[in-house]
Amino acid sequence: MMMMFHPFASSASAQRWLSQLLSLSKNTQKHTESFSDTLAMVNQLKEKKEQVQRQQNLDPENPATESSRIFFCGSFCSALSRLFSLTCVIFLVLSFATLLSAIFWLFPPRRSLPRHHADHIVHLNASVQACFRLHKPASKVISHIGKLEKDIFSSLDLRNHTKVTVLSLHQPGASNFTEVKFGVLPVLTHHTLRKDSLTSLRSSFANLFAQRSSLNLTKSTFGKPASFQVLKFPGGITVDPLGLEPVSGLLTLIFSFTLDVSLSEIQHKVDLLKNQLEFVLNLELFESFRVVLTNHKGSTVSPPVTVKGCVVSAMTTMESHIQQRSNNLAQAPAKNFGLDNSVFGEVRNVTFTAYPEGKVLGSDSVLALTPTS
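Structure for DUF7036 domain-containing protein, as requested:
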């Protein structure tokens, strides 16, 4: 039996197939569009994430970035701190070593220097004491104390009933000289020095202090002594700092005052004292003056000092001039008696007596200015 192909049946199948194909194409297109939308969303999210990351990298307030910076700075500072700590330690060690070397160089360790001290009882019994300096180390002097005492005794021309005792030998610090302190005592214990011995000794001490004489010591052993000072003398010590010749003529003025300085301090400024006194006394060409200094404690290194002087005229002085001088001196205490108080200190206890008609200068007037025993 022969089958016949119906044209309408074939057309219907083709239409169904075409319809299914179109439906499949539409579904595919939908899926494609859906996938494209999804991909676009993914790309947008990715771009947004990258944008956020870029903003975070640029944002100074971003905690993550700040943490990274803090971590980096902390690591750097820690390394730098360790480096500087090591450098500082090395620097401090070197500085301390240099400082220690300088201290030992400037102040070397004190070594035990040889010294000599007489018995305490001997110190108390020595009513006359003086000192001077030898430019020799104590180690070279201490073994010759006996010879030193004999040389001092001979230089002072003492009597046989007296003796010289070295009370102490002392070498100050790192110096190269020796301070010698000695005393003059009676040979017999519980006795005092005689009056004639004190008179002779006072004159010798005054000349030694004023450098008009010197101790005659063995030069090869002790060298040349210097800086003679009187420390203790009964009845006081009086010196003539200007070394003037004895004056003669008519006495027109006697004056005195007190300075709160030592004889030693004035001795170094004696020329200034002379010039300032000449100015305040307003001397005429035919007038001269003499002055002596006394420390009643018998010391040239301790204050105070009494200044006593006189004005002598080689001819009759006009009473008007003497009166004018008296008026000036009456105002002098307010002006420190014409002396520079920054050098000599304050002038105290000023007294003066004027003789308008002049007074014959007798032995009693001269003795009033010289040392007494």
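Residues 1-10 have pLDDT under 50 and may be disordered.
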